[in-house]
From TrEMBL:
Location in or out of the cell: Periplasm
Name the UniProt record assigns to this protein: Thiamine-binding periplasmic protein
Lineage: Bacteria, Pseudomonadati, Pseudomonadota, Alphaproteobacteria, Hyphomicrobiales
GO biological process, one term: thiamine transport
Keywords: Periplasm, Signal, Transport
Top-level taxonomic group: Bacteria
Main location: periplasm
Family as reported in the entry's similarity comment: Belongs to the bacterial solute-binding protein 1 family.
Length: 348
C-alpha cells in the first residue's frame, strides 16, 4: 500500500512530494513517437513513481527489452486507484493496475474490469501464501506504528496500549477511504477488537493528530517532527538505517501481532496492449523488478533478489502473529466498517 529523502514517501514510499506527473519516454525536443510504438499505461500510487521510488528504475529496465514506452499514472494511494478505475469503467486507459492489495482484490474483481493474468506466479512467496488467477503479488510488509525515539521513550507495546495510551502523545494515521495503510489499520483494529472496534476508535481518536489521504503525507508530517508517531510499516526503519545512517525511528512490536499487506497488480480486461501487460507482470517477478523493492519501496520482495537484503532488514520487528482477513470478508464489510469508523471519529 511503502513502503524518505522524503517507501508508499513509501520514499518509493519514501519520496516526499511524490511525483504526480506521468512518466513518459519522449523527452522535450525528442522526435515524436512512431504510430507503431507500443505504450503500456500503468495506474499506480504516486510514491511508486516518485524520484525515490522503484518506478523510474523498473521503467528503464523494462523499456530496454520491451520495445515500448511505459506510461505511469500516479494516484494518491491504492484505494484511490480502485476508486479511479470504478469511475472510468470500461473507458479506462489503463492496461495494468499496480498498487492494490489483498484487502481490495475481491471488490476489484466484482467490478468486472479485470482479466485473468495468464502468467506463472509459482515463484512468488508471501507469508500465508497468495495464489490468484487475476492478481499478481509483488511485495508485502506488516503494518506498524513507527515512533521517534527522541520523543517517545515508552512506545506502545500492544494495540491496546496505543488505543488507551497518553492522548498527549499523538499519532498521524491514513484515511481508510483512500489509503491502503488506512484500510489496514481499520482491519487490524477490527481483527483485534471485533464488535468493540467502535469503542476502540472512540478512544484512539484522542491520540490522532490528523488523518491524511495517503501514506506519503502522513510520513512527511512524522519526519518533519510534527508528530511523534505514524502508522506505517515494520520495514520503514530500514530506510532510515540504510539511507540516513540513523536508528532514531523504530517500529513498535505489538503483543497481539501485526496486520500484513500484500500488494498486487492486475490486468485490465479492456487493456489495449494485453500481451505487453502480461510481459510486464512476468517481469515483476524477476530480479529486474524485485531488486528495486527492498531499498526503493521499502517493502519485502516476493521472489529472491540478486543480492542479499541490507543488514538493516535483519533487525526489524518480527511479528509474533500475522493478521489477514480474506478478500471476501473485507469486500462484504468494508463500507459498513468505514461508516463505523467515521461515526466514531466524528463523535464528540
Amino acid at each position: 500500500m511503502a513502503v524518505l529523502s522524503l517507501p508508499r514517501l513509501r520514499f518509493g514510499r519514501f519520496g516526499y512530494g511524490a511525483a504526480t506527473a506521468l512518466f513518459a519516454a519522449v523527452m522535450a525536443g525528442a522526435p515524436a513517437a512512431r504510430a507503431e510504438d507500443k505504450v503500456l499505461t500503468i495506474y499506480t500510487y504516486e510514491s511508486f513513481i516518485s524520484e525515490w521510488g522503484p518506478g523510474p528504475k523498473v521503467k528503464a529496465t523494462f523499456e530496454k527489452t520491451c520495445g515500448c514506452t511505459v506510461n505511469f499514472v500516479g494516484l494518491e494511494d491504492g484505494v484511490a486507484l480502485l476508486n479511479r478505475l470504478k469511475l472510468e469503467g470500461a473507458s479506462s486507459q489503463a492496461d495494468l493496475a499496480l498498487g492494490l492489495d489483498t484487502n481490495l482484490v475481491e471488490e476489484a474483481k466484482q467490478t468486472g474490469l479485470f482479466a485473468p493474468h495468464g502468467i506463472d506466479t509459482s515463484k512468488a512467496q508471501v507469508p500465508g501464501g497468495f495464489k490468484d488467477d487475476i492478481f499478481v503479488p509483488y511485495d508485502y510488509g506488516h503494518f506498524a506504528v513507527v515512533y521517534d525515539t527522541q520523543t517517545i521513550k515508552n512506545p506502545p507495546k500492544s494495540l491496546k496500549d496505543l488505543v488507551e495510551g497518553d492522548p498527549s502523545q499523538k499519532i498521524v494515521i491514513e484515511d481508510p477511504r483512500t489509503s491502503t495503510p488506512g484500510l489496514g489499520l481499520l482491519l487490524w483494529v477490527k481483527s483485534v477488537y471485533g464488535k468493540d472496534a467502535p469503542a476502540a476508535w472512540a478512544k484512539l481518536k484522542n491520540r490522532v493528530l490528523t488523518v491524511t489521504p495517503g501514506w506519503s503525507e502522513a510520513y512527511g508530517l512524522f519526519t518533519k517532527g510534527e508528530v511523534p508517531m505514524v502508522f506505517s510499516y515494520t520495514t520503514s526503519p530500514a530506510y532510515h538505517i540504510v539511507a540516513e545512517k540513523t536508528d532514531r525511528y523504530q517500529a513498535a512490536s505489538f503483543l497481539e501481532g501485526h496486520y500484513i499487506q500484500i500488494e498486487v497488480a492486475g490486468l485490465l480486461k479492456n487493456a489495449k496492449n494485453k500481451q505487453l501487460a502480461q510481459e510486464f507482470l512476468t517481469f515483476m517477478l524477476t530480479t529486474g523488478f524485485q531488486d528495486e523493492i527492498p531499498t526503493n519501496n521499502w517493502m519485502m520482495p516476493v521472489t529472491k533478489t540478486s543480492t542479499p537484503l541490507p543488514d538493516a532488514f535483519n533487525h526489524l520487528v518480527q511479528p509474533s502473529k500475522t493478521f489477514l482477513m480474506s478478500p471476501e470478508e473485507v469486500a462484504a464489510n468494508r463500507k459498513a466498517w468505514i461508516a463505523e469508523w467515521q461515526a466514531a471519529m466524528a463523535a464528540k
